[in-house]
Specification:
By secondary structure, this protein is α+β, with helices and mostly antiparallel strands. The chain folds into two domains: 78 residues, S16 Ribosomal Protein, Chain: A (2-Layer Sandwich); 46 residues. Helices cover 50% and strands 19% of the residues. Strands 4-3-2-1-5 form a five-stranded mixed sheet.
Length: 159
Amino acid sequence: MAISIRLSRGGSKKRPYYRIVVADARSPRDGKFIEKLGTYNPLLAKDDEKRIVLDADRAKHWLSVGAQPTDRVARFLDVAGIRERAARTNPNKGKPGEKAVERAEEREKKLADAEEAKAAAAAAAAAAAAEAAAAPAPAADATDDAVNEGESASAPAEG
């Protein structure tokens, strides 16, 4: 018979309260259990001594006869100093999913396109400004010449 040390949920809706129990692995979560080892109240502060209450002697006994703790209970046992829990590493846990990667790539592409358009607009504006600065100068010279010609034409008539 496979025996596990696990949590059995109690309490009302949105007010969880757990019993730490030894049960047959095939029995339902809140169903029949062999022995109650303690309690866990996640609503209490993390430094509260009543958050996790555990009978260490009985837990050691059940571990010695082959009971397997769940991940959460293994954490409790590690904190209590009963059983050391090996650190788990999942390098893919922090990586974003496929859709998030696609959205990030689209966002980068849009930013790059916007920067290119902005740079092109700035270059076009600079070229237009340079062209506008260069174009009025000859036109101004032509008007100055026409004015000067008119003055010179009128000057001999007066004299």
